[in-house]
Amino acid sequence: MVKLPESLRRVTDEFAPAFTKPTHARWCLLVVATILTVGSRTISNVLRTLGRFAPGHASSYHRVLSRAPFWRWRAAKILARLVIEAFCPDGVIHLAGDDTVDEHPGDHVYGKGCHRDAVRSSHTFTAWRWGHKWVVLAILVSVPWSARRWALPVLVALYQPKKENLKAGRRHKTPATLMRQMLAVLIRWFPDRTFVFSGDGGFATHELARFAQRHRARLTLVSRFYPDANLYAAPPKPRGTRNGRPRIKGRKLASPAAVVKRTKKRKRLTVAWYGGGERRVEVVTGIGHWYQSGAGLVEVRWVFVHDLTGTHRDDYFFTTDIALSPKQIIETFTGRWSIETMFQEMRAYVGLETTRGRTRSTILRAAPMLFGLYTLIVLLYARLPSRWQKSPALLWQGKPTVTFSDVITRVRRWLWAEWVLETACPREPFSKLSTRFQSTVLHALASAA
Fold it and tell me: Which of 37, 168, 294, 418 is the most exposed place for a label (fewest CB within 10 A)?
């Protein structure tokens, strides 16, 4: 532990308040081992990577994910603070939220259910997977090595099927409810910051819109909208002293689809699109109060988007901040695509679907730790010396910028050279090898896949 690189220890030491001292030491070694491991991220496999670098019995490392003292909310707050200090020191903080299904084999696994797989499903076909559905809240950050924003997960919650909640006597929480709770925690942690949250259609709920309206000085919601949404004018002010129940809504407004149908002249814009490119679109916009029976009104601005290239279907978006322009609304929503990229990279490079825990505590720790590890790897890369940031990486035709495969490869090369080889054997024999051969050895050890 003492011989870990200084820049790594500065990051891991920040998390000391979330653990007891013995657990923190084992957690630090597991973090390093998980970064270095290629393949499944089970405790047994990452301990094989460490070998004699992991003192003590193997069961003590298994207990980090099962019974060891660990304050998850405290660790999440530290991680969010590190991300904001490193990439969002001022200005508005952009957030993205979504859920993903983590396939998990086994008959007796806590929290497991049959969920719709958004990646494999389409408008005409629904694919189902058995596993865990994780609701993830990520901070969208601008990094100096990439043109697009990166989604760094900071809060993760497990969605459990309604049938399982009823059987256990728990109140059922939808993904939108879990996201609302995580947003409430985040804005309470950072009372001096403002946030813009963008979510897919699953988070286009009246409940989440009402929450954003209640905290409109701190939080703005952008999501997909419904063509047939119930929109009304604001309720009229009561007149005179006549008794009776005041009106809760004004006159009925035309639905977004009806407004679009009768609008002949549409405004044309060039907007930032999914994946970092640009797209010419036609838009129609309007303002109204979204009504739900028993829940009241939420003032929203909606935008209809027609892709002029014809490759993307027509779509409707909305925001709880009516001062946003249609261009800002569209670019805020399309900017959330980075979270989908993060999910794919989690499976390809961080081993999201390779854990094998079954008990409640292990399930609730393993996957959230892997999501946090993704963010931690990006934070470590941002602190690497320039010579390691520019070390050789995987290249292919048309690759424009640094990807996460480059990031994890370069962090691994740095750890192998500055910690493993430096500690396990005298430095001189390895340094006597030719530069090209050293690079070949490190490339084989630090493969991204």
Answer: 294
Query: For residue 388, with 0-12 CB atoms within 10 Å meaning exposed, 13-18 middle and 19 or more buried, which class applies?
Result: middle
Of 35, 54, 69, at which residue does a domain stop? 69
Range 9-31 average pLDDT: 94
Cα(360)–Cα(378) distance, integer angstroms: 29
| Cβ atoms within 10 Å of 427's Cβ, excluding its own | 11
Res 98 pLDDT > 90: yes
**Closest to 209 (Cα-Cα) out of 96, 99, 290:** 290
- For 20, 37, 41, 375, the CA distances from 46, given in Å and listed in that order, are 22, 6, 6, 19
pLDDT at 427 over 60: no
C-beta of residue 147 within 8 angstroms of C-beta of residue 93? no
Q: Are 210 and 237 in contact (CB under 8 A)?
A: no
137/99 Cα distance (integer angstroms): 9
Please check whether residues 398 and 426 belong to one and the same domain: yes
- In a domain, residue 295? The reply is yes
The answer to whether position 378 is within a domain reads no
Q: Check: pTM over 0.85? Answer yes or no.
A: yes
> How many of the other CB atoms lie within 10 Å of CB of 168?
8
In 230-320, DSSP assigns E strands to: 231-232, 267-272, 278-292, 296-307, 315-319
State what percent of residues in the chain have pLDDT above 90.
Answer: 69
Helices (H) and strands (E) in the chain, counts: 17, 11
Distance between CA atoms of residues 406 and 274, nearest Å: 22
Instruction: Report the C-alpha gap between 381 and 400 in whole angstroms.
Output: 18
| Residue ranges making up the domain that contains 196 | 72-344
Q: What angle do CA 32, 34, 35 make, to 5 degrees?
A: 65
| Nearest C-alpha neighbor of 286 from the set 332, 331, 308, 255 | 255
Q: Which bin fits 275, alpha (ψ -120 to 50), beta or left (φ > 0)? A: left
Please determine, for residue 251, whether its predicted confidence score (pLDDT) is greater than 90. yes
**pLDDT tier at 50, thresholds 50, 70, 90:** confident
Measured in residues, the chain has a length of 449
Cα–Cα distances in angstroms (integers) from residue 400 to residues 88, 376, 403, in the given order? 24, 24, 9
Helix (H) or strand (E) holding 60: helix 58-62
- If asked whether residues 58 and 119 sit together in one domain, one would say no
- Top pLDDT among 424 and 334 is at 334
**One-letter identity of residue 285:** T
Using alpha carbons, select from 119, 183, 188, 184 the residue that is nearest to residue 339. Answer: 119
